[in-house]
Every structure is written in structure tokens, then in C-alpha cells.
Amino acid sequence: MDIIIILFIISIIMCVSWLACKDRILGSENQTYKRNQTLDEYLKTQGQTAFEGHSTQLTDEPEFLKNIVKNNNIKHVMEIGFNAGHSSDIFLSNNKNIHVTSFDIGEHAYVQHSKKYIDTTYPGRHELIIGDSTKTIPNYIKNNKHKKFDIIFIDGGHDYNIAKADLMNCRHLAKSSKSIVIMDDTTFPNNKECEWNVGPNRAWKEAKDAGIVKELGSSNEQPCRGYSYGKYSNI
Known about the structure:
This protein is α/β, with parallel strands linked by helices. It has two domains: 2-36; 55-232, Rossmann fold. The chain has eight helices and seven strands; from the N terminus they run αααβαβαβαβαβαββ. The protein has helices at 2-34, 39-45, 60-69, 86-94, 110-121, 133-143, 160-170, 198-209, and strands at 76-80, 99-104, 126-130, 151-154, 180-184, 213-222, 225-232. The protein has a seven-stranded mixed beta sheet, sandwiched between helices.
């Protein structure tokens, strides 16, 4: 009997010790979020410091994204090109009532680290769909017939055919003619063209000339870097 009691006491001690250890581990794992680390600070702790071009490398574009999402009528935001999560972070941090749906090819390791940060910082407010946007978006439209978005931010593949497909496909996801569509990496009218903006420039200009998009404005902050925004016509 004494042996059974001793074994029982030992098992309790081991259980309590394990739970305490578990709490310390989880506490350490989540410590970065409790200290309100920024996305870049968190990614640095994960050894991720080099990213493709993103919105926070600029000055004007982040402010534009912040201001356009600060509207009580904005509920659903969509973006093509989650990348390292910077634009999602801007959207979610500046309007606590929105949900963001992101599409990304998922070719970089930092995508999953960024997704973890976004989910921990903004629980239940973000969805990430991995794959080729020229395929995943038509599938999303097919399977979510009633899903529409107030803001559509296109910053995906820079090849002309991909940029055009993304711009045309997203037309079916605009909530109304009041929905804002933003095409990143467009530079007008006479800004420098580089490899990454030739396709978006052409796709946006063709849509504008065809009356598919009504442009409301554009910004050329740096050589080869800018964006255009407007509304889809006849939604």
C-alpha cells in the first residue's frame, strides 16, 4: 500500500512539473506577442530578414492603405500577394472590424512565419489561400458565390498575363461599384518602367481604356514603384 501511495505522489509531482514546464514553454513561445513586437521584429527572431518588395518599404502607400481601410463600412478586404504579411498587418491593425482574405503563391518560407504572427495578433480575422492565383481565385469564386469584398488589393504576379487575369477575376469579387480596387506596381504616366511593373502597367491601362476600371488616382513614389486605384464599372 505504501508503495502505491508513493508512486501516486510521484505521478502527481511529475504531472505538476510537466504542466509548469509546458506553461513556461508556451509562455516563451508567445512572449513576442505579449511584448507587442512588430511583424518585422518577429520575423527577425525567426531568422527571416530578406523579403520581396512590400508596401512598408515606401512612405505614401502604407498611409494610403491605412486611410482607405479606416471606414466603418469596410468589412471584407481581399489581397493577392500576402508575401511577408505587411499589407495584411496594415489593414488589420487599422480597422478592428475587418476580415482579410489573402491569396499567395506560397513560395517563400517566411510566408508561414508571417501567417503565424498575423493569426496570433489578429485571431480569427485572416484567411490565407495558397496557390496560383489564376487558379485559386476562379475556384474561390465558384465555391463562394456570395462572397464579396469592399477593398481588393492586387500585388501578385508581375507577368502581364497574371496581372491581367487577377484584375479581371477580381471583378467578380467586388461587392459593388463602390468597392475599391488597388493595383500595385503601376507607374503613370511617365515614370520609369522596370521588369516588375511592365505587366501591371499594361493590364491596368487596358482595363482603364476598355472602361472596365474607372481610375480614381495613382501615385509614383519612387522610380519603378507606385500604385493605381479605382472602381470596377458596371458591377
